[in-house]
Amino acid sequence: MLINCVAYENGSKLADIPIAEISEYLKRPGCFVWVALKDATEGELAVMQAEFDLHPLAIEDAQHGHQRPKVEEYGDTLFAVVHTVEMSPADEIDVGELNIFVGNNFVLSVRNRSGQNLLAVRERSEREPQLLMHGPAFVFYALLDAVVDRYFPIIDALETELEAVEEKIFEPGASQANIRRLYDLKSDIGIVRHAVAPLIDAVHKLFSGRVPAVCENNREYFRDVFDHLLRMNGSLDSLRDTIGTAIQVNLAMVAIEESVVNKRLAAWAGIFAVISAFAGIWGMNFKLMPELEWKYGYPMALTTIAVVCVILYRQFKKSGWL
Amino acid sequence: MLINCVAYENGSKLADIPIAEISEYLKRPGCFVWVALKDATEGELAVMQAEFDLHPLAIEDAQHGHQRPKVEEYGDTLFAVVHTVEMSPADEIDVGELNIFVGNNFVLSVRNRSGQNLLAVRERSEREPQLLMHGPAFVFYALLDAVVDRYFPIIDALETELEAVEEKIFEPGASQANIRRLYDLKSDIGIVRHAVAPLIDAVHKLFSGRVPAVCENNREYFRDVFDHLLRMNGSLDSLRDTIGTAIQVNLAMVAIEESVVNKRLAAWAGIFAVISAFAGIWGMNFKLMPELEWKYGYPMALTTIAVVCVILYRQFKKSGWL
Amino acid sequence: MLINCVAYENGSKLADIPIAEISEYLKRPGCFVWVALKDATEGELAVMQAEFDLHPLAIEDAQHGHQRPKVEEYGDTLFAVVHTVEMSPADEIDVGELNIFVGNNFVLSVRNRSGQNLLAVRERSEREPQLLMHGPAFVFYALLDAVVDRYFPIIDALETELEAVEEKIFEPGASQANIRRLYDLKSDIGIVRHAVAPLIDAVHKLFSGRVPAVCENNREYFRDVFDHLLRMNGSLDSLRDTIGTAIQVNLAMVAIEESVVNKRLAAWAGIFAVISAFAGIWGMNFKLMPELEWKYGYPMALTTIAVVCVILYRQFKKSGWL
Amino acid sequence: MLINCVAYENGSKLADIPIAEISEYLKRPGCFVWVALKDATEGELAVMQAEFDLHPLAIEDAQHGHQRPKVEEYGDTLFAVVHTVEMSPADEIDVGELNIFVGNNFVLSVRNRSGQNLLAVRERSEREPQLLMHGPAFVFYALLDAVVDRYFPIIDALETELEAVEEKIFEPGASQANIRRLYDLKSDIGIVRHAVAPLIDAVHKLFSGRVPAVCENNREYFRDVFDHLLRMNGSLDSLRDTIGTAIQVNLAMVAIEESVVNKRLAAWAGIFAVISAFAGIWGMNFKLMPELEWKYGYPMALTTIAVVCVILYRQFKKSGWL
Amino acid sequence: MLINCVAYENGSKLADIPIAEISEYLKRPGCFVWVALKDATEGELAVMQAEFDLHPLAIEDAQHGHQRPKVEEYGDTLFAVVHTVEMSPADEIDVGELNIFVGNNFVLSVRNRSGQNLLAVRERSEREPQLLMHGPAFVFYALLDAVVDRYFPIIDALETELEAVEEKIFEPGASQANIRRLYDLKSDIGIVRHAVAPLIDAVHKLFSGRVPAVCENNREYFRDVFDHLLRMNGSLDSLRDTIGTAIQVNLAMVAIEESVVNKRLAAWAGIFAVISAFAGIWGMNFKLMPELEWKYGYPMALTTIAVVCVILYRQFKKSGWL
């Protein structure tokens, strides 16, 4: 689905143009065309391939989707794949894709399976002609930056969730729920990581070493995106590491809790075993058991049993078993 | 076993040729020969070595098999080893080998211990003369691509299996079955990984840095294969990592389940210990135990015992032990 | 908030100057200006941006804060972000930020969310004109060095805390407290690590390889900071590693303790089971149980039970269960 | 102990020569000398040092032994240390050392603490003069190749042992034996790894980058050895990884088995507790317990107890505790 | 404290010289001065700084101590920090420091907090004038070599201790002692590792790549030290890895032991529960319990109980629970 197709000159919008006239505008010096598609069909991509002379392998990738984030050079044209990440209403992480083709005088963005609106990027860019004058590379940066900045709230949400689990990590009885949440959290982190980690290397090539000609004059901007990605990656690494430790600690807590239960069980079992032993002995049927004949034999027996139980109880209390 | 031996010129098939005439066709400019062998015998390989002047070490590798995936240069000739991976009917992973020799005017593929048919590659190539015109390097790419693309369904199957285990990971009583499946899964992943990981470095050399002369004009195609391999490697890494966590979580679940059982055991043991204690006391043989003489002594005793048990039961229920 | 704004020439202070005159002093050869801000407002940063011609992306970073430590070149100007780390009165680790802009003839430091006073750096620098003559790069070094040196006492405190836990690691009953402290310790180490680790790479670029022109003559000083950072990083690595082992050992201790408890429980359960068994047997109501009629039947029974119990007790004692 | 000392020319054996004449043969162009020593004494090494002008540090290493595998250049001479690995009759892994000195016109091999016979290498080399013509570097390759190829059966034996353990990993009661075998296996792998891993880097330098002059024309042969080493290293990595998982799984199996035992224990304890409770109640000495007077009181009691026990038994069976 | 201060020429000792004359000797061509200090005071270091024109940052490091091992270039002068490691009488590892300054015509060694005597190095050097002729770099090597060689016995001691633990690792009841020893061992390994690991990189720079001018002619000697360090590092890695596995195995052994105890407990509990159940039933007070009236009722009861117990005992024995 075509979202818009606009020609720009010297940083300001010339006109919304029909697709058929793209090639005409491409010939005008100092002019560039910015086309945005959404969930593009095979036919739409074929048209774009013809208009912008795109490499068949790149078009194939854009069509099939499910690529890893990357930036590839096909001659003078850059082909970038970036994952869009958003929280679904059901609190699950949805991953979509933004494919960006950048040439000397055009930008083509193809957004697939993503609810993220990129119109704001276009509006902001059009409001800042001094920046838009940098040409397609700046548009490329602006798109990248917009997508990458939307990773931050996701990562914040994951950190908040981890903190919520951490608060309950030493709480008795919460182990099973904790471990479930940690497991889910780890898989969410994996998803975001797959969006972030491959992009780091890809963006690094846009400002360091042999930089693609089209990005030459915007290195500092791509370094800024790179820096954001590094920061996110650091956060994700910390999260992973903390989750690993938290699972381990949780396991220790289960063991500790169980050992507490075992001790308590042992203590009570001991106390009742003593009662049963006394009762058993005085329940024996020997003819001659003098204490059974005593007047106060029974109260004495109960008292004896009670005293022993209290002593045991105190001992166990003292040694922390009860 | 010879499968076919065909000469191509300008991207289209010249003729099926007998092995004996290979050397003749090799002399024709713009012409190349593509030979496919299956489970080649020592004799067949010796003939090929003579025809194409192959290095003895490479021939030795092709003959012995069980090589790790690699791409080696012997002078102008490339020697590649790729693992074919397929799911056997018994749901086990079978690994075969495809050895590819690529020269300036020939491609020789030797497929060993593999049921994978590569005829489709030849057919597709012959249908696209504009691509086949790129010569042996394109054939090499097409073979690589065909073998590597068949890793995807295997990896998908492993992911599906992992998801099936994950659904049961918090299910009580499933631990033993889960851990067995996770262990098998991990070893399957190891097998695929051995096909994928070494190939990444090998293919990287075909489009980056000092590229072998024969591949010079097909860099983008090899980069595409490389990209697929990276994607698979990412998936395999995720799988490994998730399995590691799943085993750990499984262990925690076993501990948690056991702690639940222990608490329940402790609670019931407590309740019955109380019954036994009371019964023991009233079973003692003291002469003077007034309550034994009471008319309603027995019902009173039963009631007392029942009341204490109910109180205990509620307490245990409340604290989550029962 | 402006802290001070001073012009220096040949290593000694010229004068405290008003912000409006900065640009004048910047024109004087051999003169440089050193401005210190604290929790700078947007407005203050905008003035500085205009005075020193700073890059908008760097200003944005300084304003938003929460950057990872880094050193970036924007043309001739360096922009550095360093974390300040201090122990709060509640024994928690507070992280602030020091943003430093270094040009050929100016240093601008912006300290955010940090209670650390850097006046001492200025005083020491002013006392050593032979060093201050090195210009802005030396000031940059002095600031870096001051911030980094304050990491040492924090790391020492963490090491002391770990040693305190280690002393209790084999102490029975301390597992839960230990594991909690280890978990907190690990997260503290994470915080310091985030200040140290990214800075290592950043500082490395200030003395090795293509060194920014402004730092050219102070390489040895930056190498000294680098060396301190490496040392800290080594300590943090050791701490992490030791904590990992300590958690593992703690888990083992819980298991060992529990196994001790279990054995003791089993031993006592065994002894009481024997008493109950004897008492049960002699409590049976068979008509003909000759020993029940014996004169010394009862004492004999008690003695038998006692002897068996003592034997069992000794056996258990000997085998270490009691 | 001198094993042999032979001069070669143009790929074929000239003569067995006495040590004293070595220096003479070294002067003949196109001629090289190949000396093999076994468990050489200090004196023998001193003679060799003089004959071939070897570096004292290399001689020292050869004498002391216990070096890590390595290839070092001393001027034009290469000094290589390779570990020989063989299975002792007691199924333990014995490690010996082969020290090889390679110059432009000599090879000196010193084999220490190793039962491996290298005569076969010499015989095979002498049978293939076209290869032996490559000179000392080819002999060096042949020795390396012979030693490295003998690692394969050792690694196979380790893999077989691991598979044997894996078959028993889910077998109840085998945990202790399994873990012992896994532990031993891991230490065996460590030994082989110490032979293989350092050699990878060392051999890499013999065919890639700045190759020592003496190896210049045999690069493909050293790459072949390198490739074998990589393959072994991959196998060893898999083994290590699998052992790690197997130990973890074994631990889980112990926990699962114990939890099965605990449940069974709990179930039987419950059943017997019920019997005791009933018997206890009907064993009380209340005067008025009507059911005790009934004619069929006793059979009724036994039936009641039996029925309750059967119900419990079925419940436990159903819930998988028994 | 000054230990000695000697001038050398052409590899042999000229004279013990007073500190004040150092500068004179430094002017003589072909002459170099070797000064050894121990636990140097600030004043002594200041004198040395003046005599040899040392960099203030290096002096500061030497004074403060607690540096990580490193080799730094300050202009033409090298500054090296090496850790001395020795076993204290209480079997603890003591770490000291050796600071070495190496110039074109001087060596200054400052030994701090170390009982290691380096006089032997001087004596050996003076006995071998042909080596001492290599100048300060050779002295530097000799000092490095002496310190590094003393790491070997420490590492051997650690390996011996690990083997001692390994022998007890499958011994029942030794878990707690084992885990304590493993924990201590791991921390000892950490200490030695901190001496070895950073030195590897540092020494690597002395023979590979851009070698400091002063070491130019002694590369092979530094490579020898490097090789020793690599070997030690390999040993330390193995130790670490083995300790990790040993702790894991120990944990498994605790679990296995406990499961053995639990089974035994369950078996005995079962046997006694059977006795109690029978005794309980025959202890009930029903009027009509025919077997109670039998003449041989009691012996029959005892026999029944005994038979059941023996059967159970055999069953448990057979299934390995007892």
Biggest β-sheet description of chain A: 7 strands, mixed
Multimer state: homopentamer
Spatial order of the strands in the main sheet of chain A?
A: 2-1-3-7-6-5-4
Question: Which residues of chain A sit in consecutive blocks of at least 5 with pLDDT less than 50?
Answer: none
Tell me the helix content of chain A. Answer: 55-70%
Please characterize this protein's 3D structure.
The structure is a homopentamer of 322-residue chains. Chain A has helices at residues 22-27, 42-52, 56-64, 119-127, 129-132, 136-149, 151-167, 175-204, 219-282, 290-293, 297-318, and strands at 2-9, 12-16, 31-38, 70-74, 77-87, 93-102, 106-112. Chain A has 322 residues and is α+β, with helices and mostly antiparallel strands. Chain A has a 7-stranded mixed sheet, with helices on both faces. In chain A, strand 4 (70-74) and strand 5 form a beta hairpin. In chain A, helix 7 runs antiparallel to helix 8. Chain A is rod-shaped. The mean pLDDT of chain A is 91. Chains A and B meet through strand 4, helix 8, helix 9, helix 10 and helix 11 of A and helix 9 of B.
Secondary-structure map:
Five copies of one chain form a homopentamer.
Chain A: E1 2-9, E2 12-16, H1 22-27, E3 31-38, H2 42-52, H3 56-64, E4 70-74, E5 77-87, E6 93-102, E7 106-112, H4 119-127, H5 129-132, H6 136-149, H7 151-167, H8 175-204, H9 219-282, H10 290-293, H11 297-318
Parallel strand pairs in A: 3-7
Antiparallel strand pairs in A: 1-2, 1-3, 4-5, 5-6, 6-7
Would you kindly provide a brief summary of this structure?
Five copies of one chain form a homopentamer. With 322 residues, chain A is α+β, with helices and mostly antiparallel strands.
